[in-house]
Amino acid sequence: MEKPLPYISTPSFHLPENPSLSIVIPLLNEEASLEQLFSRIKDVCYTHGFPFEVWFIDDGSTDSSWQIIQFIKEQNQAGTVHAIKFAKNYGKSQALHAAFSKVKGDIIITMDADLQDFPEEIPGLVEQLRSEKLDIVSGWKRKRYDDVLTKNLPSKLFNAAARKVSGVDLHDFNCGLKAYRKKVVQNIDVYGDMHRYIPVLAANAGFRRISEKEVKHQARPYGTSKFGTERFVRGFLDLITLWFVSRFGARPMHFFGAVGTLMFLMGFLSAIWLGIAKLIDVSKGIYGHLITNNPWFFIALTLMILGTLLFIAGFLGELVIRNNREHKNYHIEEEF
Length: 336
Hints:
Blueprint: E1 21-27, H1 34-48, E2 52-58, H2 65-74, E3 81-85, H3 92-100, E4 107-110, H4 122-131, E5 136-140, H5 148-166, E6 178-181, H6 182-186, H7 198-204, E7 210-214, H8 230-248, H9 253-283, H10 295-324
């Protein structure tokens, strides 16, 4: 098992022996698996004495998934099953975000609805989160039962790049089976396709006690995958965005101002060099050519203009950040 990332503060939270669970399940056209999935979740929670609630988020299904969810709710006691139905397919991140604002459990479990994740792994995730005083325990599907060329190999490359760029040492960022402290999901904003990077978002918010647990995986028993190979392209682009925002989002002048100043100085020095060269030629009695005929003149001019624009962009970004800073939600680890 990987060691959790270092964290500055001393843990100040305590989870009970049998914490309450909120199990969040985003889904799209998974009518064949829902009843079996819920039955297994219920058996696991009853066996281990976990008070629980299940949140189904129907992300615009066109099959009978919503009707099955309604049936499951009717067959169980009040407060056990909750559901949200989107008018159209918004994406997994939006589904998770909608549920995270409503969950009530001490620990939040996320898992996919396609039965590739095992509900029987939940007690192990909860125990590791509680005993090691972690913020997040992420599932790690060491052995995957997916197509090697279209999923396994691209996934390995994607995870290696994510580890390198983010600094969060997980083997499987995209595993849907994860356990969180409630405070974590309350302090992160999951948007776009950022569901892959919730551990990175959490680490950037100050929740750096992150570890992983190896979990079982099986081939999808019903239906087909809702994600194509294009998800890896989007994933890499999102990773670059996340790296840039996490590093410079709070201080845009450090990037735009530095790059803009460097470009302006290069252009300015090039213009001075052109002027000196012209004066040397004149002193030698060489006439007949204009500075504007030299391509370096336009390169220098372009560099100075772009540098000025980038510097202004950084300055405006700083003004926006300062105006919004008073509305920022901070993760407070301890308070007396």
